[in-house]
Amino acid sequence: MLSQLARAGALAAVLSGFCLPLAANTTTTTAANAAPAASTPWIMAQTDLSILREAPAYIAPRQVRVGLLLPLRSDTLGPVADAVRAGVQAAHEREPDGIDLSIIDSGDAPQEVLSRYQEATALNDIVVGPLSRSGVAAVVQSGSLAKPTIALAQIETASDAPATMPPQMLSLGLSIEDEARQAAEWAARDNAGATAVILYTGVAWQRRAAKAFDIQWQQRGRQSQQLELASNDGFLNGRSLLQLKKDLPSDKPAILFAALDARQARQVRAIIGSSVILYGTSQLNPFALLDHSLEDRMVDMEGARLVDMPWQLQPDHPAVMVYPRPVVAADQKRSADLERFYAIGIDAYRVAREIALQGDSFELDGVTGKLAVRFRSGSMRLERTAQRAVYRDGSVVPITELP
């Protein structure tokens, strides 16, 4: 069982640009050179699964080799890597035909990640990973992308624009920036003429989320003001919240975007009240889907709006229903963030499988959201649309009637 200290450390590492914590969820193991499944294999268009769409020569049917590159022994990222691994294996167990899955321990130092990535591309047709931003950056900067790669993190960018991935790389990580941009679009559509007051602390992921929301909001021609709140050990400074209440626009409509975690957002609500609509990212939802209880309800967040994933919100979702939940010890509470990384593992495998089928473009109703992969001019692009949600009676529920 992870201690509270270990959980906090892993959480900080993930949101600061790596990823977040969970326990092992499946006992399935996959050998690196497993024998081909007895089922009918797929006809592959090209040996190396190049995404270029020129007419290829016929290649005899065979298994597609998918390499999963994760820092499984990392002190910081190990729990997160194990959650992703378990999700990938759960998806592979459900749809194994035609896929040989191998698991490669990447380490977490950028140079080691790059070395193991290069080994993985030599032995596999598709690579899933790396997991950390620094690892993805090392691969991209090396220019060694030779096979379709599904990165599990965003690459860093010096500009304010979303990162542009290399032609053979997709990103399916938990991007707080993407969630913030989607929240901005939602808020702009529903609040014509409103000013956005954007709240964050000095934590790196909160700064990134605040910036992404602000840029997207201003691109819609809207006015905004950013406010960095003083905090100590995760608790917001009371005086700064009282000042915020005084400074909220009184002569025109306003909304709040809280680039904060759930505990901090509750502190904002305690001072500001619920008269100003509050938007946020998945970090406003600390609940694992199976662990809701009357004691956990957060009635003070009533009406707060956020984006999250079906895995955290919709037990009756067609894709969510068919995959097992991670296994945790009887005395251990589920981690919402590790559940999200388990879900990322499921969808990463499903995307890899679809790429192996050589479809020109495809869409998936995934456990992490609606996924669309497009192939254009020898490159590929992935977009994930998160699920909108709102607090009702102290719990987070999906808003399914919105387009």
Q: Structurally, how many domains make up the residues? A: 2
Helix content: 25-40%
The end-to-end span amounts to 40 Å
Q: Quick one: biggest sheet?
A: 7 strands, mixed
Rg calc: 21 Å
Query: Tally of extended strands?
Result: 17
The share of residues in extended strands comes to: 15-25%
* Level-2 CATH architecture of the largest domain: 3-Layer(aba) Sandwich
In order across it, which strands form the biggest sheet? 7-6-10-11-12-16-17
The CATH class of the largest domain turns out to be: Alpha Beta
- CATH topology heading of the largest domain: Rossmann fold
Global mean pLDDT: 84
Q: List low-confidence stretches.
A: 1-60
Q: Find the CATH superfamily of the largest domain.
A: Response regulator
How would you classify the helix and strand content by structural class? alpha/beta
Give the overall silhouette: globular
The string of secondary-structure elements, in order, is HEHEHEHEEHEHEEEHEHEEHHEEEEE
